[in-house]
Structure formats: structure tokens, C-alpha cells
Write a structure and sequence with these properties.
Layout lengths: L1 E8 L5 H16 L4 E9 L2 E11 L2 H9 L1 H14 L2 E7 L4
Antiparallel strand pairs: 1-3, 1-4, 2-3
Length: 95
């Protein structure tokens, strides 16, 4: 299982567009055969910070996600163009 979070910061003015993009990206990503979990969150008390928790069956599924049309459209062509900061955290399950 591959698990990670992506933390991004955006301008306040971009909140409605970011929410729109995240909704479309999450919907499409959850339909991928190798996607286990894809949940975007807004950080409580930090409305301009988004954290996406993602889990994929294996490395191949994570790579397929990044190669998908919807990832290129919504993440690369949308979120990446609007974000001010981005941090990726790879996770290892303990139990």
C-alpha cells in the first residue's frame, strides 16, 4: 500500500476555484482501479491550506494516477498553477 499526503497553500481569492478543482479531481481519482482512498481536506483554522490524503494499491497505481488525464488537467493544469506552496509527505503504516 502506498500512502501519502500533499499539503498546499493557496490565496484566499482562489478558494472557490480550488474547491471546484478538488471536487472534480477527487471524483475522477476515486474511480481509478488502484485508488484506495483520495480525500481532500481544508485545514481547520487555516482555510487557505489544503491537505489531500491519498492511498493506492501499489506503486504502479500511484504512477497511473499521476499519468492520468484528470491528474494532468486538474492537478498540473489547475492546482499547481494556483498554489503558493506544496509539501509531499510519504507515509509508512505502523499497524
Amino acid at each position: 500500500m502506498i500512502s501519502f499526503t500533499v499539503r498546499m497553500k493557496f490565496r484566499s481569492d482562489d478558494r472557490p476555484r480550488v474547491a471546484e478543482i478538488l471536487t472534480a479531481l477527487a471524483e475522477a481519482s476515486r474511480k481509478e482501479p488502484g485508488c484506495v482512498t483520495y480525500i481532500p481536506h481544508v485545514v481547520e483554522g487555516e482555510p487557505d491550506t489544503v491537505v489531500i490524503y491519498e492511498q493506492y494499491r501499489d506503486q504502479q497505481a500511484a504512477e497511473a494516477h499521476r499519468a492520468s488525464r484528470h491528474f494532468k488537467e486538474y492537478a498540473v493544469g489547475g492546482l499547481y498553477q494556483l498554489m503558493l506552496e506544496r509539501q509531499l509527505e510519504n507515509l509508512t503504516a505502523v499497524a
